[in-house]
Amino acid sequence: MGCSSCSTAKDGQPRGCKNNGTCGTDGCNKLTVFDWLSNMTLPNGEKPFDCVEVRFKNSRKEFFRNSENLSLSIGDVVATQAATGHDVGMVTLTGELVRVQMKKKKEDYTNPELPVLYRKASQKDIDIWQKCRDREDEIKKRAREIAIVLKLQMKISDVEFQGDGSKATFYYTAEDRVDFRQLIKDMAKAFGIRIEMRQIGYRQEAQRLGGIGSCGRELCCSTWLTDFRSVSTSAARYQQLSLNPQKLAGQCGKLKCCLNYELDVYLDALKDFPGQDTRLFTEKGMAFCQKVDIFKAALWFSYKDEPANWHMLSKDHVNEILEKNKKREKVASLEEYALENVQEEAEKVFENVVGQDSLTRFDKPKKRRNNNNKNRNKNKKRTNFRKKPANNA
C-alpha cells in the first residue's frame, strides 16, 4: 500500500519519498495514526514511554514493551515476541501517543506480562519474513482446495505467516460452526508448519482484504475505521434513502458503515419535524404525509381521494395545522398553505441542423437490389441496339 508520493518496496519499507511512512499524505500504512506529539520535547526528568505500537499484516496491531530502550521511529521493521519464536512487524507509533492508544483500547501498560520487543530486524529476519509472505497466496489456494475436498462450509479468506515462518494463521468466515480438525491435520501434513484457525466476521474480512468502495475511495474499515458498530435499515429510512440492498450493502455483504456517519445530524433535524404518519384534517378530506425533505424544511401531503396530487407545505405550516386539528378545527384546504409550485420547464424543441434529413435515417435498413432487375435492365438496353424489322406494307 502506498500513497501518491511513495510506494512499498519488497521488504515492506516505504520507498520513493523516503520518509519511513510519515509523509504528508500519511497513506503509507493501513490504519495509520498521525503522531501530533512527535515534535514536542518531554519535561525535565520525564522518561520516554517504553511501549510502542507495531503493525503486522494488513490491519493487525499490537503493543510491545521496548525493554531495551531502542531508538525507534515510525517505519522501522522490528522483531517482536510471539507465543513461540518471534514475529516481524513495522513500528507505527512511538512516544506518549502510544499511552493514549492503549487507554483507548483498554490495554494495561503497567502489565508486566506485556510482550517484549526484541530488536530491530536484521536483513536475515527480513529475508525469511519476505520469503514466507511470498508463499501465502499459494498456500491459501491449496488450503481452499483441501477444504472443498472435505466439504466444509467455510471460506478461507486470508493467511498470515509468523515472522520466523514456524506458524501460519488461517482466517476464515462461516455461517455455522465448522469441525476443521481433519483440515488442520491435512494442512499441517501438506505444509509442514503449525496451523492456527481463527474465525472472523464479514466486516473483518473486508478490513483485511481491502478494496475500493462505491464512492471511489478505499474502504473505511481498511484505512481508518477501527470499531464496527451495528447498522440497521432504520438509518437509511431516517435519511430518506431507497431501500435497495445492492446500493446499501458494502463489499462485506452487510450494510455500509457510512450510513451511521450522518445519522445523528438527521435525527437531530427530525426532532422538530412531524412524523411520517402525520395526518391533516381539512374540509376537503384527510391528507397523508408522502415525503419529508429536511434540507428544504418541507413536507409533501396528498388527499386520501387524490394520492397522485401532492402539495408541498412548510414545516411551520404543518405544525400550525396540527395545532388547529388538536382543537378539533379543520382548515379549508391544503392549497391555502401550499408553497408556490415550481413551474415545469417548457418542452424543448430540437431543430434539425442536418437539413430535411431524418435523425433516424441511419436506422433504416438499406434496400437490397434484386439481381433479376439488373438482368432485365441489361436485356432492355440490348434490344434498343437491335434493328427494327422492315414493314411489308
Poorly predicted ranges (pLDDT <50, ≥5 residues)?
18-27, 341-346
Provide a count of the helices: 11
Structural class: alpha+beta
Shape: elongated
> How is the largest sheet built, in terms of strand order?
4-3-6-5-7
Q: What portion of residues belong to β-strands?
A: 15-25%
Please provide the count of β strands.
Answer: 14
Largest sheet: 5 strands, antiparallel
Q: Tell me the Rg in angstroms.
A: 36 Å
Kindly state the mean pLDDT as a whole number? Answer: 81
The run of helices and strands is EEEEEEHEHHEEHEHHHHHEEEEHH
Distance between the termini: 107 Å
Approximate helicity band: 25-40%
Walk me through the structure:
The protein has 393 residues and is α+β, with helices and mostly antiparallel strands. Among the domains are: 24-120, no CATH class; 131-205, K homology (KH) domain (GMP Synthetase, Chain A, domain 3), CATH 3.30.300; 229-271, no CATH class; 279-336, no CATH class. The protein has helices spanning 96-104, 123-134, 136-149, 181-191, 202-209, 220-223, 233-238, 245-248, 263-270, 315-326, 371-384, and strands at 7-8, 14-15, 51-55, 61-65, 77-81, 86-93, 117-120, 155-161, 167-173, 194-199, 279-282, 285-293, 298-303, 310-314. A hairpin with a 4-residue loop joins strand 12 (285-293) and strand 13 (298-303). Helix 3 (136-149) packs across helix 4 (181-191). The longest helix is centred in the middle third of the chain and has 14 residues, at 136-149. It is elongated and about 85 Å long.
List the helices and strands and how they pair.
Elements: E1 7-8, E2 14-15, E3 51-55, E4 61-65, E5 77-81, E6 86-93, H1 96-104, E7 117-120, H2 123-134, H3 136-149, E8 155-161, E9 167-173, H4 181-191, E10 194-199, H5 202-209, H6 220-223, H7 233-238, H8 245-248, H9 263-270, E11 279-282, E12 285-293, E13 298-303, E14 310-314, H10 315-326, H11 371-384
